């Protein structure tokens, strides 16, 4: 309908492109507008459809599009767009029921899509929770344990509304063995309270296994039988009625959330022909370490031609702000895009921007700690300046001098040699950098012979002695390599076949034809894909690398600061990358005698990369990040935002001051109160990369 209205009218698609282009990242080039106009020559072609597709690829929101149509004065198009989405409020993230230890804070989350201006309201039972008008509800469980509290969230736009499902929060005494005694979600991430138990059943019985965990964010579940996922088994309880011998085997449960994962013990389920013995859930007072639980039998290794894939890990580095060389734009967007896609494929991802040489080396060292025998895939992606001499590739850190040599850079082949020593099943290098000869460097590095492992894949963004290019499409656009790579990355294809398809696609781009072409080097002898599923690891082999990975992804917990004047300020955190964090402040409670107040961050450590002109901003877009639309969704409204970069440079815990300025009714002067806040070492700072 929009295409019908905008394809031929005077206030049509060209006017929409002009109005939308006021925002830099939505501005279309002359070539893109020409491509849109040529769509009229196709049987069902539509210039408007082509333009909307371009805007969609740049993450244009429905709210922004509607605003553009309103500025055009196209009332009919506005009505069509508004009416089409008015009844489309859809809950995309439901709040999860949780069992928590007394004294911990728990977060319930409800996200919805729909028309602009969605309003959230949380309820406890039938009572509105005062001030709970954000997608996230933080509950203080310091109250005594008792009956579960039931929570639900209403999302509305005008008279149209939708309710989330109910979630109950059960608080357990910290002295109970089944609760997380001393449990701290910030450090531990997840903890299993109730482990599945082995059982022996007869055909026709009901199989009932249970795995209960607590965590923040709330845990999710996936059951496995014989180390393969059980379809549809994504709840704490696994129940199968009328079992047959086909259900016998070893069962375990993968428990995970956004930042962490752990596995339950693996238990055997025997199914015979005689009378069975139903599985009994452990009593409430028994936890995962209770003495009444039987010892965990060692599971048999099921015969399978697929290697035991216990983990897939990725290190993504993007260098943009060089001190002595041309600055780049695409690495930030490229790293963010690949992070999101690889997480969909169950990769553990560490994403870092703007690293000096020592920081790059330390980041690689920490990455190597995540790799071990049984790790299915180790993937290293680098976007930034680079070069190639004598068959060796070098990644250039941001502090490299103007005439740099291999002594100032990291050699990719040395990283590969270290990865081979970790016995990783599949080693993937995606190098989005130039491969021109460095005339300042005549040293031939002595890397040493590589092992013959038949598991190495190199995907170069360009050929040897050639350059890799960026497209001038604004701040929020991918580089050429990732523009085509993201189209295929989620496909269930052998990695070499996938990269071949990317190369074919890149070859269709006219402006780089004859100048940049993907080069694939591989000695991979088996069919291995990025989509291959992860299987349950043993406790010993996974705990160290899980802890190492979890360290780099722990955000400080949201907290409430109470000032002497009676004002309460919420302090919240969001991660843009593993070394870039957003801090937001929001006034959540104000006494009636205070007319105006706001809370700002001050005294931020000098070693961090912080532009003071971009701190304490009223909108996410003002903090200087083109990725603001991606992380601002997790932040409540009416906040002041600050962006802290270079967390790997922190020498000590992150300490800053929250300065509250307020004015009483009937008075002109502002009063000031300050509180010093310490949030420990957030995200990658815990790994001490400096």
From TrEMBL:
Protein's name according to its UniProt entry: MALT1 protein
CDD domains documented for this protein: Death_MALT1
Entry-linked PANTHER family: MUCOSA ASSOCIATED LYMPHOID TISSUE LYMPHOMA TRANSLOCATION PROTEIN 1/PARACASPASE, PARACASPASE 2
Cited SMART domains: IG (SM00409), IGc2 (SM00408)
GO biological process: proteolysis
Domain Ig-like: 89-156, 185-270
Pfam families linked: Ig_3 (PF13927), MALT1_Ig (PF18703), Peptidase_C14 (PF00656)
Gene3D superfamilies: 2.60.40.3360, 3.40.50.1460, Death Domain, Fas, Immunoglobulins
Domain Caspase family p20, chain residue ranges per copy: 310-438
GO molecular function: cysteine-type endopeptidase activity
């Amino acid at each position: 309908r929009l295409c019908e209205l905008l394809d031929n009218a005077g206030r049509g698609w060209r006017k929409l492109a002009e109005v939308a282009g006021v925002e830099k990242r939505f501005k279309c080039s002359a070539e893109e507008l020409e491509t849109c106009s040529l769509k009229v020559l196709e049987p069902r072609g539509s210039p408007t459809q082509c333009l909307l597709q371009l805007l969609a690829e740049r993450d244009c929101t429905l709210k922004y599009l509607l605003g553009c149509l309103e500025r055009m004065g196209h009332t009919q198009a506005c009505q069509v767009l508004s009416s089409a989405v008015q009844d489309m409020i859809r809950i995309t993230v439901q709040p999860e029921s949780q069992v928590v230890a007394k004294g911990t804070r728990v977060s319930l989350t409800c996200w919805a899509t729909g028309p602009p201006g969605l309003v959230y309201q949380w309820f406890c039972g039938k009572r509105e929770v005062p001030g709970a008008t954000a997608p996230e509800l933080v509950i203080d469980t310091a109250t005594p344990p008792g009956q579960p509290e039931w929570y639900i969230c209403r999302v509305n736009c005008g008279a149209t509304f939708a309710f989330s499902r109910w979630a109950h929060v059960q608080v357990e005494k910290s002295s109970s063995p089944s609760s997380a005694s001393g449990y701290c979600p910030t450090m531990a991430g997840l903890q299993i309270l109730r482990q599945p138990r082995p059982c022996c059943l007869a055909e026709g019985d009901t199989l009932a296994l249970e795995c209960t965990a607590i965590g923040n964010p709330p845990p999710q579940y996936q059951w496995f039988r014989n180390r393969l996922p059980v379809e549809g088994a994504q709840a704490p309880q696994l129940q199968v009625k009328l079992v047959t011998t086909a259900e016998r085997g070893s069962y375990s449960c993968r428990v995970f959330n956004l930042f962490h994962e752990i596995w339950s013990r693996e238990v055997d389920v025997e199914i015979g022909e005689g009378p069975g013995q139903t599985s009994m859930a452990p009593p409430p007072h028994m936890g995962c370490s209770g003495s009444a639980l039987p010892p965990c039998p060692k599971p048999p290794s099921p015969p399978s031609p697929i290697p035991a894939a216990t983990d897939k890990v990725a290190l993504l580095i993007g260098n943009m702000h060089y001190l002595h060389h041309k600055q780049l734009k695409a690495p930030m967007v490229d790293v963010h895009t690949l992070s999101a896609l690889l997480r969909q494929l169950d990769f553990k991802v560490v994403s870092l921007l703007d690293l000096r040489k020592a920081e790059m080396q330390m980041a690689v060292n920490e990455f190597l700690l995540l790799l071990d025998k049984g790790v299915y895939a180790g993937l290293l992606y680098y976007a930034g300046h680079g070069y190639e001499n004598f068959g060796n590739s070098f990644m250039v850190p941001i502090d490299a001098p103007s005439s740099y040599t291999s002594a100032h850079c990291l050699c990719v082949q040395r990283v590969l040699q270290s990865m081979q020593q970790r016995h990783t099943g599949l080693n993937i290098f995606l190098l989005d950098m130039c491969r021109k000869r460095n005339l300042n460097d005549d040293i031939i590095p002595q890397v040493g012979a590589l092992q013959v492992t038949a598991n190495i894949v190199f995907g170069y963004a360009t050929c040897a002695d050639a350059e890799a290019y960026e497209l001038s499409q604004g701040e929020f656009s991918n580089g050429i390599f990732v523009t085509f790579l993201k189209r295929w990355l989620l496909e269930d294809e052998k990695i070499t076949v996938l990269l071949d398809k990317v190369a074919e696609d890149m070859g269709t781009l006219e402006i780089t034809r004859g100048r940049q072409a993907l080069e694939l080097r591989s000695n991979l002898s088996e069919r291995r894909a990025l989509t291959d599923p992860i299987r349950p690891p043993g406790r010993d082999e996974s705990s160290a690398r899980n802890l190492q990975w979890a360290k780099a992804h722990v955000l400080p917990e949201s907290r409430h600061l109470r000032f002497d004047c009676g004002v309460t300020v919420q302090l919240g955190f969001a991660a843009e990358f593993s070394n870039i964090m957003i801090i937001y402040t929001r006034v959540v409670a104000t006494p009636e005698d205070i007319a105006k107040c706001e809370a700002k961050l001050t005294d931020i450590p000098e070693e961090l990369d912080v532009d003071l002109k971009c701190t304490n901003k009223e909108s996410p877009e003002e903090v200087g990040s083109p990725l603001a639309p991606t992380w601002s969704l997790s932040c409540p409204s009416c906040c002041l935002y600050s962006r802290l970069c270079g967390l790997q440079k922190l020498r000590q815990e992150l300490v800053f001051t929250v300065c509250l300025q307020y004015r009483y009714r009937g008075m002109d002067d502002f009063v000031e109160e300050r509180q010093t806040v310490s949030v420990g070492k957030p995200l990658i700072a815990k790994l001490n990369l400096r």
